UniProtKB/TrEMBL annotation:
PANTHER family reported for this sequence: GLUCOSE-1-PHOSPHATE ADENYLYLTRANSFERASE, GLUCOSE-1-PHOSPHATE ADENYLYLTRANSFERASE-RELATED
Role this protein plays: Involved in the biosynthesis of ADP-glucose, a building block required for the elongation reactions to produce glycogen. Catalyzes the reaction between ATP and alpha-D-glucose 1-phosphate (G1P) to produce pyrophosphate and ADP-Glc.
Site feature Could play a key role in the communication between the regulatory and the substrate sites, where: 67, 106
Positions of the Glucose-1-phosphate adenylyltransferase/Bifunctional protein GlmU-like C-terminal hexapeptide domain: 307-410
Domain Nucleotidyl transferase: 16-284
Keyword ATP-binding attached: yes
InterPro entries for the chain: ADP-Glc_PPase, ADP_Glu_pyroP_CS, GlgC_bac, GlmU/GlgC-like_hexapep, NTP_transferase_dom, Nucleotide-diphossugar_trans, Trimer_LpxA-like_sf
Pathway(s): Glycan biosynthesis; glycogen biosynthesis
NCBIfam families (UniProt xref): glgC (TIGR02091), PRK00725.1 (NF001947), PRK00844.1 (NF002023)
Name used for this protein in its record: Glucose-1-phosphate adenylyltransferase
Organism encoding this protein: Aquamicrobium zhengzhouense
Residues where alpha-D-glucose 1-phosphate binds: 107, 172, 187-188, 205
Keyword list, A-Z: ATP-binding, Carbohydrate metabolism, Glycogen biosynthesis, Glycogen metabolism, Nucleotide-binding, Nucleotidyltransferase, Transferase
Length: 420
């Protein structure tokens, strides 16, 4: 008997991840790396979530367009995502802005970052393109979005979040009819249009788009010849298709992947220091909103071969402990106390120190008798003995970056200036 199940559309799709963003609101965290390469969750980088979604959805052709300070990102991709095999009809292309179209032209916008690589994309002969932003934290099955795109006979399908109207003013917002056809695309509206079935909510663009490849290539070529265009999906391509074609909204709640422990559809833009700190610290909760232990939808990354974490000393006042914390491999907690903290690989916390609400990136060393509260430490920071941070706003503002929410961001350059 023949198998009547439809073939997965993901196997005939390419995921194209736009990972060139600077992420300037993350301040010094993006001084040496692009936003998608920023560390997240103890073992991963932000871009690993979009890439893992593509892989778990069944997509086996992936391209990543890089631009701003891309070395850290490219190195991570080469180390952690090099398991695709051409003999299995798989491919993983890292596509830096390499002036392939013009000797003076870098990627001018998100649409141009695809247009400049049209020949590479067309060579694979895929039927569908899934355009993704590389800088958000979420779990999503793109196969469900591809099916909606085909069933609706859409020219473009736009991934959308349901957000309260009052909070939608910073997004591109869809005005849709009862069938979720997009009637109007409004960029950062003062009065966002409500959803027909939920008037108090608005549909905000996630920066995720599905096209048939041939249609997208036609639109990119048309846009490239428009002198008025800014070569951007949100500003140019999508509004044009909404006006002249058929655009459909895809609600994230229908394709969000949740484990049995996740009650809400989880999506975060960790683009500010406060949002970044909060999303990392939330993972230390007993039942966090994001389940990173979900074996049915794993987050793939570069898996470093490191020894286990170690906790040493058991004396009053000098006891290696961590409560409600995530500790990565190769960390040594030597007679120090941690609470609600997240430590990446290779961190050393020395005796009589205490950390609370701390996000500590790889390779940091915390000296003896240091007391840190509500901090983010950039990679490789060496905290001097006895340093106290998080208790004096005015003093900390002179020494470090203090966010609106009171998070202290500390880099090695700031520590070096303390001695001057």
């Amino acid at each position: 008997m023949m198998d009547k199940r439809p073939q997965p559309l993901a196997r005939d799709a390419m995921a194209y991840v736009l990972a060139g963003g600077r992420g300037s609101r993350l301040a010094e965290l993006t001084d040496v790396r692009a936003k998608p390469a920023v560390y997240f969750g103890g073992k991963t980088r932000i871009i690993d979530f979009a890439l893992s979604n593509a892989l778990n959805s069944g997509i086996r052709r992936i391209g990543v367009a890089t631009q701003y300070k891309a070395h850290s990102l490219i190195r991570h991709l080469q180390r952690g995502w090099n398991f695709f095999r051409t003999e299995r009809n798989e491919s993983f292309d890292i596509l830096p802005a390499s002036q392939r179209v013009s000797e003076t032209q870098w990627y001018e916008g998100t649409a141009d970052a695809v247009f400049q690589n049209i020949d590479i994309i067309e060579d694979y002969g895929v039927e569908y393109m899934v355009i993704l932003a590389g800088d958000h934290i979420y779990k999503m099955d793109y196969e469900l979005m591809l099916r909606q795109h085909v069933n609706a006979n859409a020219d473009v399908t736009i991934g959308c979040l349901e957000v309260p109207r009052a909070e939608a003013t910073g997004f591109g917002v869809m005005h849709v009819d009862a069938n979720d056809r997009v009637l109007q695309f409004v960029e950062k509206p003062a009065d966002p249009p409500g959803m027909p079935d939920k008037p108090e909510m608005a549909l905000a663009s996630m920066g995720i788009y599905v096209f048939r490849t041939s249609f997208l290539m036609d639109q990119l070529r048309r846009d490239a010849h428009d002198p008025q265009s800014s070569r951007d999906f949100g500003k140019d391509i999508i509004p044009y298709v909404v006006k002249h074609g058929k655009a459909v909204a895809h609600r994230f709640t229908t394709s969000c992947v949740r484990s049995s422990l996740e009650t809400e559809a989880y999506w975060r833009d960790v683009g500010t220091i406060d949002a970044y700190w909060a999303a990392n610290i939330d993972l230390t909760d007993v039942t966090p909103e994001l389940d990173i232990y979900d074996r049915d939808w794993p987050v793939w990354s570069y898996a470093e071969v490191k020894p286990p974490a170690k906790f040493v000393h058991d004396e009053d006042g000098r006891r290696g402990t961590a409560v409600s914390s995530l500790i990565a491999g190769d960390c040594i907690i030597s007679g120090a106390a941690l609470k609600r903290s997240l430590l990446f690989t290779g961190v050393r916390v020395n005796s009589f120190s205490s950390l609370e609400d701390a996000v500590v990136l790889p390779g940091c060393v915390i000296g003896r008798n240091a007391t840190l509260q509500k901090v983010v430490l950039d990679r490789g920071v060496r905290i001097p003995e006895g340093l106290s941070v998080g208790f004096d706003d005015e003093l900390d503002k002179k020494r470090f970056r203090v966010s609106e929410g009171g998070v202290r961001l500390i880099t090695q350059a700031m520590i070096d200036r303390l001695g001057n």
